[in-house]
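ESCALATION

Customer reports they have been waiting on this structure for their group meeting. Please prioritize. Original submission:
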Amino acid sequence: MITLVSRETVFAQHKNIATEISEMQKAFYDEDYLALCDNEQERKAYLDLFDIKDLSFPKINTSYKVTAIDHDELKTYTKTLADRLKKLFLATGIESFFVMAHLNTAFIGNTDNKYPPLQKAFKKFQNITGDINYNEVISIDMDDLGDLVDIAFWIARCDASAPEYTFFHDAADRLSFNICKHGNIHLLEYEKEILPHDLLQQFGWLVMDNRCYDKFTTDGRIKGRRIKI
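Update from on-call: job pushed to the front of the queue and completed.
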């Protein structure tokens, strides 16, 4: 079941993802960029991106790893990825996620990009949220993971104007992951390791050395990737 939730609600109830995003926003915030804004409207729009930057949270211990599946057929990739994620997460008792961007901005950056797989993802996103410019949180269970994995992958891969990080955060506040433009899973675990290397390998996942490469091309050029001018 998919429900729409406010960022404020999720941050109030899930301190680990609130802490992670707050720290990211502190790192992304640029006072020099703010000084270059031409008017108050531009300044406000920029400041609104950082909705949790100024809040303080207790320090948490996190572990980070990059993991991937051995699958290089682009047309079937998101279905295969979602199926493998479901098996892995259900085996560890993870049943639902909050999906949100690291900044307070729309998930989609460039609706003018007409690349067909991306447009299909845009349409699916709008059907779910009712708003192509939606910028809050999408709450999902495992039945809906496939749709959101498909949407997040194509946005990350082809919409260079979209937020750099779209998090899938475990509703039990134990881990988060995002999908990069190469289709790899960047995993953050809070306090306790839930997915050790041996478990990942048991389910057929590759544990990478924190470096990503594009397995769908030979030259690294991503077809359909555009930035909004």
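Sent to customer with the following note: The helical segments are 7-13, 15-28, 31-36, 40-48, 74-91, 116-129, 145-158, 197-202.
Escalation resolved.
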